Amino acid sequence: MIAPLAVMAVLLAAVAIIAPPGLPWRARRRAADALDDGDLPALEAEKEAKYREIRDAELDFRTGKLSREDHHALDRALRAEAIELLQRLDAARERETA
Amino acid sequence: MLTLGRACLILALAIAPFGIGASLYGVRARRPDWIAAGRRSVYAIFAVTSVAFAVLETAFLRSDFSFSVVASHSSTTTPLFYRATAMWSSQEGSLLLWVWLLSGWSSLILALTRRRLRAVAPYATAVLLGVGGFFLGLSVFMANPFKLLDPKPVEGVGLEPLLRHTSMMIHPPMLYSGYTLSIVPLAFAIGALWTRRLDADWLRAMRRFVGLAWLFLGFGILLGAHWSWTELGWGGYWAWDPVENAALMPWLTSTALLHSMMLQERRGMLKVWNVSLAIGTGILAILGTFLVRSGILQSIHAFGASTLGRPFLVFIAVLLIGSAALVITRLDGLRSEASLDSLLSREAVFLLNNLVLVGMCFVIFWGTFFPLISEAAGGQKLAVGPPWFDRYTVPLAIVLVLLSGIGPVIAWRRATLANARRNLLAPLLVAVAAAAVLAVVPGVATRPKALALFAAGAFVFAAVGQELWRGVRARRAMTGASAPAALVALFGRNRHRYGGYLVHAGIAVLLVGVAASSAFQHLHDVRLAPGGSARIGGYDVRYVGATSNLTSERLALGTILDVRKNGRHVATLRPTRDYYPTPGSGSGGAISRYFDGETESQIGLRSGAGHDLWIAVQPDVGSMQPMVAAIDKRFPHPGPREEALLLAAVAARYEIKPPPAAFRMIVAPLVTWIWFGGLIVVGGAAIALWPSPEQARRRVAALYAGRLGRELRGAQA
């Protein structure tokens, strides 16, 4: 007698996990952000990666892995890439709010 | 309870295709509610399999022998800790553990990433459910842990004696965590390929989980090696056994992926390589489970010879062909966004390290599957042994250790020759000095591979030491902090980099231990009568007496060894052989069945930073056979109390008049370095993987900024 009740309880619990009463089940379409992240998070992550590259280059210079000239050239190139990313981020933000 | 367990498995199996359908329908019809239902199906499978897991675990703890799997893998005399962990010594239980861990890790990762990778996640969810569904199918139809045994026996067979070891019981969950975590990057890689979202975003999201899989796999491998050294009586920690190799292969490819993914994150390079490595690692993880569970290759670890081979092979083939087709059809989106600036750069070192790691994996794959390859080609099953593996893997390991020293001291993007020379000079000098000093140690020069590995190890220690020293110096120059404070800040601000360096140092320590213990090992097989002695590696070992121990499940016959060095007593070792009876009364009688059943070695071990003294014993129980046969004849059907008394008499006779015994004695240098190196690796990896709350906060802020924009736009429209 206990076993069928326990099986029923597990079944109900599974249904409740998959489709909880609070889930707006009949909402056919919701905000697009529920389906796609948009460009912003990826660009933000790219920006973070670029900043990390700049900091790494700085650390490489300070720990003697890069000469002053090499670091200068690399830093300039990385900052140019970072600026381009910031511009893309701004453009993406504008697109989002337009 | 059997019904509940069985129902849980069937329910979980039914949820898997529903979840796949919900995820795919949701993403096609742009229905987030269905996508959420797909993701929640993974949570539901985890919940339902948790109930099944709990039911089976309770049955093991209660010794409920109406469960067939409990009767065949446990007994009332099995100690509680081993009863709690006996579940995964069985085919059925370990498959349940696999699917439970997969659903658990998948639930955690899908919950953590639910606000990102929204286009990719539904496909990844479908793949995860597909893999989970496959394993659930095996559990329901081919290896059901909830089979009824009727009539219920009064006693179970007991746990395989060799598995009665603490590290062996933790080892499977560690290894399976590594395997199942490796499936998650595979699923997201397939999702990224399917949706053509082939930038670094999916890879960035997976980095921590690839690292975690790598850590679990590595720790599991280390525990397995420790079990082999301290429990198996053959005297080694690594035998190039197919099951050991099966765990090592995905570890090697995930090591490669952890390095190469940095190139894609930074430069958009190696996209095909990374996606292939993520998929390859996942497939190798399934292949590893297949090797353990199918019994297709001879292995001391393959406790589950079975008929699961064919479905596994079909599943692996589907995954392999499907993924390859996806990669080929997405090649246009997988083009590198940049190329190498210089061959003298960290990128180039990473590329080379990837080639070496994948090369090692290929060699191991070839050697592991050579019996099957040779059988398919020539009809004869031929196996390759440790010397074959050593011939190819040792040179590759030397190159790998060298690269793990070069990587940290060379700059990203470009390094001039002058700079490289300046940074490599000190580590090179240390390596040459170490080689020169070690070469004059007797016997070392005759082992050039070991000497090269020691020199490479010294190179890595010097390179990492130099990096730490320079980093602390730079930090102190910037902040004026004390050296310890600067060191802590250096790790705190650059966890990934310096945690990684610690891992490199740990791997070097570990491999130096491996090289020393395998190349300079003294091994002596000797037969001694009580009072006799043997000499090994500078130790005099004397067999002074015998010991015995009787428990409800086994008879232990041991020896007492007096160990002296230069005439001074240094240790008393007590190697023992445990004898487990065959189930039932057996054909040979109540007492002789103890000598017909499984045996297990308890090693006499003296560990030290310099070397280990390892001794296993096999008493000559043959000389006791007449006595045992006489007892069996006189008492053909003793009760439990009489049996215990008779065994006590046999044990007392063994102690009073101990027979000669065969000993395997080993003195192996630097074995402790292997375990210590492993701990450094685990510590370094924990530092490198520790999440950065600042980064997560920024990502969430970006997401909400995007959402705010879209909602404002929606309100204006």
> Would you tell me the overall average pLDDT of chain A?
79
Derived structural class of chain A: mainly alpha
Q: How would the global form of chain B be characterised?
A: globular
The main sheet of chain B comes to: 6 strands, antiparallel
Spans where pLDDT lies below 50 across 5 or more residues of chain B: none
Strand content of chain A: under 5%
Poorly predicted tracts of residues of chain A: none
Q: Total strand count of chain A, please?
A: 0
| Largest sheet descriptor of chain A | none
Strand content of chain B: 5-15%
| Rg estimate of chain B, integer Å | 28 Å
Arithmetic mean pLDDT of chain B? 89
Care to count the β-strands of chain B? 10
Helix percent band of chain A: over 70%
Summarize the structure in words.
The complex is a heterodimer of chains A (98) and B (717). With 98 residues, chain A is an all-alpha fold. Chain A has three helices and no strands. In chain A, α2 runs antiparallel to α3 (68-97). With 717 residues, chain B is α+β, with helices and mostly antiparallel strands. Chain B is built from 22 helices and ten strands. In chain B, β3 (539-550) and β4 (555-565) form a beta hairpin. The model of chain B has no long low-confidence stretch (mean pLDDT 89).
Write the layout of secondary structure elements.
The complex is a heterodimer of chains A (98) and B (717).
Chain A: H1 2-18, H2 40-62, H3 68-97
Helix pairs in contact in A: 2-3
Chain B: H1 2-28, H2 32-61, H3 68-73, H4 80-85, H5 91-112, H6 121-141, H7 166-195, H8 201-230, H9 242-267, H10 271-294, H11 309-329, H12 346-378, H13 386-409, H14 417-439, H15 448-479, H16 483-493, H17 495-519, E1 522-528, E2 533-536, E3 539-550, E4 555-565, E5 568-573, E6 576-579, H18 593-596, E7 599-602, E8 604-606, E9 611-619, H19 625-634, H20 640-656, E10 661-669, H21 671-689, H22 693-716
Antiparallel strand pairs in B: 1-10, 2-3, 3-4, 4-5, 4-6, 6-7, 8-9, 9-10
Helix pairs in contact in B: 1-2, 1-6, 2-5, 2-6, 5-6, 5-7, 6-7, 7-8, 7-10, 8-9, 8-21, 9-10, 9-12, 10-11, 12-13, 13-15, 13-17, 14-15, 15-16, 15-17, 16-17, 17-21
